[in-house]
Amino acid sequence: MGISIANAALRLVSGAFILNSGINKMRLDEESAAGLQQMAVNGVPQLASLEPAVFGKVVSGAEIGLGSALLLPLIPSRLAGLGLAAFSGVMISSYLRTPGMTESDGVRPTADGIALAKDVWLAGMAVALMFGRRSYRQQKKKHKD
Fold this sequence. Notes:
The structure is a single chain. By secondary structure, this protein is mainly α. It contains seven helices and no strands. It has helices spanning 5-24, 30-43, 52-71, 77-97, 114-117, 120-131, 136-144. α2 crosses α3 and α2 (30-43) crosses α4. It starts with a helix and ends with a helix. 23% of the residues are buried.
C-alpha cells in the first residue's frame, strides 16, 4: 500500500491548508460565524437551520477532520480525495450562488469572488487523488503477476 510522491504532495498541501483553516476557525466569534454561515447557505440552504455558533464549530471540526485525513497516510488516497471533493463542491457551489462573486458570465470571479474561486484547485486535487494512477511500485508488482 505505497503512496506515490504525487499523491503525497497533493495530500500534504491541501491537508495542511485545510487543517490550518479549521484550527483558525476554532475561536470564531458569533458575528464572524454568522457571516461565514450566510455565504455557506448560498451553496447549501439546509445550513440556515443551525445557530451561527454551532455552525462555526461544525465547520471548524469538519475542516480539522478533513485536513487530518488528508495528512494521515493510513487513509487511502481515494477516500481522502472523496472527502476533499465533497468539501470543494460546497465551496464551489457557494461561490457560484453568492451574488457579487462572479462576473456577468456567472463563472469568472469578481474581486470579491477571488477568495472562493481560488478553491477550485481543491477540486482538481480531489480528482487527482481519486482517479490518479497507481504508484510505480504497485504498477511494477501488477506487471510481475
